[in-house]
Amino acid sequence: MFEDLSLKIENALKKVRGQGRLNEKNISDTLREIRRVLLDADVNYKVAKEFIDKVSEKALGKEVISSITPGQLITKIIYDELVTLLGSSQTEIKLNPSGITVIMVVGLQGSGKTTFCAKLAKRLKDHKRKVLLSAADVYRPAAVEQLKQLGEKIETRVFSLNEPDARKTAADSLKFAKENNFDTVIIDTAGRLHIDEQMMEEISDIKKTVNPSEILFVVDSMTGQDAVNSAKAFNETVNFDGIVLTKLDGDARGGAALSIRSVVGKPIKFISNGEKTDALEAFYPDRLASRILGKGDVISLVEKAQQSFDENEAERLEEKFKKNQFDFDDFLKQIKVIKKMGSLSSLIGMIPGLSAQIKNAPVDDKALVKVEAIINSMTISERGNPKILNGNRRKRIARGSGTSIQDVNKLLKQFEEMKRMMKNFSGKSSLANLSMGR
């Protein structure tokens, strides 16, 4: 979501590159442009003004030492202020060391609350918590059923009642958790299309009833300043503990992410960038600041790789590359691993400098679907030995996969090029070490 913002800030910083020192004139010109970029991104006016004032104050009069350029110096100052603006450090959710941890999830309708509840449940389950989902969103049609389907997908129990009483559902789910040895309850509360007194009164009552360890406010990052306004209203009612930004993979300008923490005074704890139940990340201010400034986020990329790659499998692949035995079955496995790591556009954004280089090139996640279809249309012998793919076989594969012969030929060419490249690479650096972040 930050590609456009990142590119515009990069262009603004060109004004001070190549100059001998930072002075009032070049700082003023650069920051005036960055201020305009922030406002265009729907950053809160007051937040943008205070941010620019702080950067200006720190940059004025600073000498540029021989080892760095003015552009590098002001980029560092902007980076430091962005980290401060976003919350300085990562903030964990509070888990009760003894007794049940109750996490109450609030937000407007359509913000992604219910999906987030399932994502958080899966994340906590992966950390050995025994989680119960509580379906207290009793007004939205099919909300309870949606949560049940998500719960089934992640193999997590969902508590619900056959009556439209959110307060009773929340209270009874806590009793059920105590009786059945659950250590964590995540309560999905009802949202609305807009903030109203009835909704606020209900979530206030639920808070008093269940005494949650943590209240998380879920906000759709694509709603801009509306997200900030609704956050203020919810915070005044329930005094939530943290913010969850959803739909970061959408076409959002970034204003909500840059404004909300400063305006509300509460930390962003999670970001969600996809529909899958594992598309949830802890929020790190320094990593997001780095991505906004076009410096990538290699740490998150390595962490995703560590979660997705199997060390033994990586070592096996390295041996196959060395012996030139890598085939389409191996390739198909790696495509599935990459898809588990997230969308191609989100992965590209984590690689320093790459998103700027390919800013005009469309990143189509469906391309992997096409590749999978082509490989799945091959026979076992064809996958193991692509050299036997003559003209007739390629026609058959194209028909079976719903693609063209040109698509099949293109994939075969790219596959051979990749094999040559990876064979050379494996001799210099272990694939296992790369995948495991060593």
How would you sum up this structure, described in words?
The chain has 438 residues and is an alpha/beta fold. The protein folds into three domains: 3-86, SRP54, nucleotide-binding domain (Four Helix Bundle (Hemerythrin (Met), subunit A)); 101-293, P-loop containing nucleotide triphosphate hydrolases (Rossmann fold, 3-Layer(aba) Sandwich); 300-435, Signal recognition particle, SRP54 subunit, M-domain (434 Repressor (Amino-terminal Domain)). It is built from 21 helices and eight strands. It has helices at residues 3-13, 24-40, 45-59, 70-86, 113-126, 143-153, 166-179, 197-210, 225-238, 255-264, 285-292, 298-308, 311-322, 328-341, 344-348, 354-357, 366-376, 380-384, 391-401, 405-428, 431-435, and strands at residues 101-107, 131-136, 157-159, 184-189, 214-220, 242-246, 268-272, 280-282. An eight-stranded mixed β-sheet has the order 3-2-4-1-5-6-7-8, with helices on both faces. Helix 9 packs parallel to helix 10 (255-264). The chain is flat and about 70 Å long. It starts with a helix and ends with a helix. Residues 351-363 and 427-438 have low confidence and may be disordered.
